[in-house]
């Protein structure tokens, strides 16, 4: 049996993957599982007097020795570590890998008995980004890649783009030329160390108590590179695209994204249709003319997200089916030079298609009013172009229309199949104060009502022109 791109197991053990055999036989692959799963019981019982700061997970080893990604949802204290060892409990003659985080340092350590060496590393997003933030719940992950000799550590989203600490190590080849880091090939067992600090409630925690360590998930494959945000039709993918990773075919994405894509990618999903061929032109007119529908609504919404030009219109299609934050299909209308605030997507999947004009997208590693980290590069999507996002990829973005014409997009959303938490809102950073706020997806109009009102307005305008 061949494995899909990424599969995760819960700490129930490697024989209980997040995708069941039944789901797999139906072709469901879990490329981007959510770790927010309510069916995972907490592994730390606060009342347990024997709770230790170091926990071993003998039943949850890496599936392939020396490779995989270990992710821990935790509210850390003053010190946090993910440790990988060749045996369930480390022996003196064995070598372990330790990701060691404190509020002042982030390091990969090579540990052999009492001999502890730091592995030379880099901080792609700056040293600050890599530090431990006590008392704030977050996802901390460690990826080990024996094939490419790469160690990565990141936070919040399991993606290569949010690598906060990286190291390239010489593993070499076991038989012919073993490198100094050949021991990485034997790593298999997971331990988590979380010590002291302050709990979310502000109470000082004793050293021996492990703060709120909630969920651990293990991916079979390491984090190597991210799929690009541009989705191309298979028929358009070139050899250069494959070599440079410029676009992805929809086939590489999760079943959720594939379903969303199938619904909106067809040529019939467009603004200007037979019934109203001037729709996009009418929108431009309605936006630019005082007293008209879009112009007045935008005026009413000015300042909604802080800055005056942080407005766009949300036209919903269909009704809320309880499987997405708000209505699953939303047509968004972006006047020239307008933008969204920086926001996340409640860990949902989304597919966005440009129906008219062009839109620019900027991406971020997190949604944090104090330490916002931007990812490079920005992208521009043109008419007909499709982009995607998932629980671990491209979750935090800002859309901005830098062009001098209106842009119309359709966004569709869906929660992860395994996601039972269902965030009912997105969060955004207020454009003025930088404060994090909830945004409950709203609707300015229902699509059919909106279209007929814009059409009526346009026809009146054309009639006026005739008289002039
Ligand atoms: Fe968005």
UniProtKB/TrEMBL annotation:
Keywords: Iron, Metal-binding. Fe cation binds at residues 343, 345, 397. One of its GO terms (molecular function) is cysteine dioxygenase activity. Pfam families: CDO_I. InterPro entries: CDO_1, RmlC-like_jellyroll, RmlC_Cupin_sf. The keyword Nucleus does not apply. Its EC number is 1.13.11.20. Transmembrane segments: none annotated. The keyword Metal-binding applies. It is an enzyme of class 1 (oxidoreductase). It comes from the Eukaryota. Belongs to the cysteine dioxygenase family. This is cysteine dioxygenase.
């Amino acid at each position: 049996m061949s494995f899909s791109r990424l599969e995760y197991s819960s700490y129930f053990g490697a024989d209980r993957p997040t995708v069941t055999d039944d789901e797999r036989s139906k072709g469901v692959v879990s490329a981007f599982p959510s770790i927010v799963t309510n069916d995972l019981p907490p592994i730390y019982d606060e009342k347990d007097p024997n709770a230790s700061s170091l926990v071993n997970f003998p039943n949850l080893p890496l599936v392939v020795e020396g490779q995989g990604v270990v992710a821990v949802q935790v509210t850390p204290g003053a010190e946090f570590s993910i440790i990988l060892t060749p045996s369930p409990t480390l022996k003196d003659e064995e070598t372990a890998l330790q990701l060691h985080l404190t509020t002042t340092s982030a390091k990969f350590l090579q540990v052999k008995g009492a001999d502890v060496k730091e592995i030379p590393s880099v901080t792609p997003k700056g040293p600050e980004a890599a530090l431990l933030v006590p008392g704030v719940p977050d996802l901390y992950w460690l990826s080990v890649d024996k094939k490419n000799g790469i160690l990565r550590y990141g936070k919040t989203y399991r993606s290569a783009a949010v690598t906060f600490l990286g190291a390239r190590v010489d593993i070499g080849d076991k038989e012919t030329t073993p490198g100094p880091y050949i021991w990485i090939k034997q790593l298999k067992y997971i331990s988590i160390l979380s010590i002291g600090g302050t709990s979310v409630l502000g109470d000082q925690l004793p050293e021996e108590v492990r703060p709120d360590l909630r969920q651990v998930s293990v991916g079979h494959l390491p984090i190597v590179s991210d799929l690009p945000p541009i989705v191309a039709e298979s028929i358009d993918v070139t050899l250069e695209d494959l070599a440079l990773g410029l676009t992805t075919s929809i086939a590489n994405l999760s079943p959720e994204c594939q379903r969303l894509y199938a619904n909106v990618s067809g040529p019939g999903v467009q603004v200007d249709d037979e019934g109203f061929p001037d729709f996009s032109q009418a929108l431009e007119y309605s936006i630019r003319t005082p007293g008209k529908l879009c112009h007045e609504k935008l005026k009413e919404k000015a300042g909604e997200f802080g800055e005056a030009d942080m407005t766009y219109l949300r036209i919903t299609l269909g009704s809320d089916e309880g499987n997405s934050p708000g209505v699953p299909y939303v047509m968004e209308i972006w006047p020239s030079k307008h933008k969204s605030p920086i926001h996340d997507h409640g860990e949902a999947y989304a597919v966005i298609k440009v129906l008219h004009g062009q839109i620019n997208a900027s991406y971020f590693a997190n949604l944090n009013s104090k330490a916002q980290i931007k990812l490079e590069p920005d992208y521009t999507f043109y008419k007909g172009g499709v982009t995607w996002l998932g629980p671990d990829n491209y979750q935090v973005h800002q859309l901005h229309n830098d062009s001098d014409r209106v842009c119309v997009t359709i966004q569709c959303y869906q929660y992860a199949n395994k996601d039972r938490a269902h965030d009912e809102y997105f969060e955004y950073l207020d454009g003025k104060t930088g404060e994090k706020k909830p945004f409950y997806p709203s609707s300015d109009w229902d699509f059919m009502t909106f279209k007929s009102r814009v059409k009526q307005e346009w026809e009146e305008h054309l009639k006026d022109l005739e008289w002039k």
